[in-house]
Amino acid sequence: MGIFDGVLLCSDWDGSLTAPGAPREETVCRENREAIARFQENGGLFTVASGRYPDYILSFSDQIAPNTALISLNGAKIVDPETGAALRETVTDESVYPLIDAILAAFPYEATFLHYPVAGTSAARYTRAEYAASRASLAKSPAYKVLLVTDTPEHGLLLRDLARKTAEGSDYDAARSWPIGLEFIKREGNKGSAVLFLKHVTGADLLVSVGDFENDVPMLEAADLSFAVANAEDEVKRAASRVTSRSSGKGAVAEIIEEIERIRRS
Asked: Is the pLDDT of residue 123 over 90?
């Protein structure tokens, strides 16, 4: 029996687990790498819950290797990290496009549309004019999520507030995944539903989640124990059970694993 048996730890990637600006070989800092390895060796299940495609996260397997299903595209796709097989997929449908249209009509600043296709490994980018010209075909092309990207953090906040109001009562979450990027994803496929799905299929008795930005809030709220890293947005810190003293590049996840161990030993 290991001290971390029954614990499922789900961490966001950018800004939570990773060290912003670090060389690629040190994307995950040494403290986090060593702590995760010890956590797994002692019975814990560790995975990443990221907005990126699975292949990107798995390309860092020399630094970390999830030992349970990988949550990608902010919950829209959950995959077996060894086989790449999808365990669950949630896609947008035509109902997201009236929301995008209404937001673009009301938003006077720079805005670029990003489409994360089901049949692909990277996002396709469209200017306003390109979006208008391609809108009919895009609406028929399944996507895991779509985004609007603006030019400044200030405009990002305005875009977020407009989108939240517009999407109210719809099937979609509208949340920033970085200061100028606002994503739309089916609520049934967000990070919160993804971590609960994974808790169920693994049989874990303690779900721990880690995040730093708005799109992480659903998985923080779904967890039994949740952490915002020291560099997290204020809204994320308010949603979390606890806030680390360390930032993502200084061993925040290592600190969380130390805290889990204290809890399990108490």
From this structure: yes
